[in-house]
Write a structure and sequence with these properties.
11 helices; Alkaline Phosphatase, subunit A; single chain; 426 residues; 12 strands; 29% helix; alpha/beta; 8-stranded mixed sheet
Length: 426
């Protein structure tokens, strides 16, 4: 394996070449330990914020809750392309929700894993604008079972789409011969706004996360433009937030129930003990934090994602180590004994099995409007194409209330982060 200059400068592998190499070795040996062909399940929610993870009670103590995971681009299409390719969006060519046809689908997590002998199945959301001009029968390379939203095989009928995704997922688990390695990708469309829950949960009570101190922030003048001119939320907006938060929570109750259905199918077929399961999201969403309602921003609410893993033979815990969404592809491919499709991500096996750090920074970007960011265990530094800069001390200020970019106390920190970011961005 060759180590690129970008990997060295990015600090992946705990900033040393030996650790980067060890990541791959540990990942492969772990796959051997669970039989070389563990069942692999990836679940990617739609616009789910990290703090709404508390609604999913079926992500219980058997899961590793990775609390410092970032999506590489906090926008659906680019984020999903990055998950499938394990690379930055400026490499995939998918820089918006309408350019997803640019993704080179001949070399993805699916083609690599299928090449390693797996049966591959996708159910739910694939990429925005699919099937583009290729027709609803188009199946991208690498997929044996194809039930993508928008395809000719997507047939939820009277079922809520969340129920359809998890129900069909469980059926696929049961229908796959026990001797056949299975890779199952589920893309529920919940809790994307307007977040219509299954009818049985339309009036259900739900435990929602508290609003952070950054909600309707009192003073945003320190933020880069145009965020520094965002007006205080109106009474209409404040009321709508309450409706949206409740519907998001209730829609996730359907996901929570679906998780139980899926785990039951894995248990009934003897696959659960050797299964690796990943639960994450394509991005989060600002619901009035910093007076904003959007994704595609570097703030924690859009860019920090839930990332939970059920790893064979490893007890659940809270894991604070840094993770980037581009690491998912590398990890899954290593687990399956397949070559990964890119070098931007790193195998998370050492972090998941023993808490050994695999990266000390995560790169985050967006194309429209362009900005680039670097997130470390303590800081987040952002450069906007139009000239704005932001620096947040996440350890002291986790809600990003005070921009320290022009604070002389942080001048050395800013310079170091800016130099590091320069090695990563386009």
């Amino acid at each position: 394996m060759s180590i690129t200059r970008r990997e060295l400068l990015a600090g992946v592998g705990a900033a040393t070449v030996s650790a980067v190499v060890a990541n791959v070795v540990v990942g492969r040996s772990r796959a051997d330990a669970v039989g070389r062909s563990p069942t692999i399940v990836v679940i990617v929610a739609d616009d789910m914020r990290f703090d709404f993870r508390k609604v999913l009670t079926n992500l219980d103590a058997s899961w590793i809750d990775c609390t410092s995971a970032s999506i590489e681009t906090p926008l659906c299409g680019p984020a999903r392309a990055g998950l499938f390719r394990g690379t930055y969006s400026y490499r995939t060519g998918v820089t918006s929700n309408v350019t997803t046809f640019n993704m080179p689908d001949s070399d993805t997590i699916a083609t690599r894993i299928r090449g390693a002998g797996y049966r591959t199945v996708l159910i739910g959301k694939y990429l925005n604008e699919y099937p583009w001009t290729k027709g609803r029968t188009y199946v991208p390379p690498g997929w044996d079972g194809w039930y993508a939203a928008g395809s000719s095989s997507w047939k939820p009928g009277a079922l809520h789409t969340t129920d359809y995704v998890f129900g069909l997922g469980a059926s696929q688990v049961r229908a796959t011969p026990a001797t056949t390695p299975l890779f199952l990708y589920l893309g529920p469309q919940a809790p994307h706004l307007p977040a219509t829950p299954p009818a049985r949960f339309a009036s259900s009570p739900v435990m929602l996360p508290d609003k952070p101190p950054s909600f309707n922030e009192a003073d945003v003048t320190d933020k880069p433009p145009p965020d520094n001119a965002a007006p205080p939320l109106t009474q209409t907006q404040l009321a709508q937030v309450e409706v949206d938060r409740l519907n998001i929570g209730r829609s996730l109750l359907g996901v929570n129930e679906g998780l139980a259905t899926l785990v039951a199918a894995l248990a009934d077929t003897g696959r659960l003990a050797g299964a690796a399961m990943f639960f994450t999201s394509d991005n989060g969403y600002l619901l009035g934090e910093h007076r904003l309602f959007k994704k595609g921003e570097p703030y924690e609410e859009p860019s920090r994602i839930p990332f939970l893993v059920r790893w064979p033979g490893v007890a659940g815990r809270t894991e604070p180590g840094l993770i980037s969404s581009v690491d998912l592809s590398a990890t899954v491919c290593a687990l399956a004994g397949a070559a990964r499709p890119s070098t931007d991500g790193v195998d998370l096996s050492p972090l998941l099995t023993s808490g050994t750090a695999v990266r000390d920074a995560a790169y985050i970007e967006a194309a429209g409007p362009r900005w680039d960011a670097l997130r470390t265990t303590q800081h987040k530094y952002v450069e906007y194409a139009k000239g704005g800069r932001a620096l947040y001390d996440l350890a002291a200020d986790p809600y990003e209330m005070v921009n320290r970019a022009n604070d002389p106390v942080y001048a050395t920190t800013r310079a170091a982060l800016a130099a590091r970011l320069a090695t990563l961005k386009l």
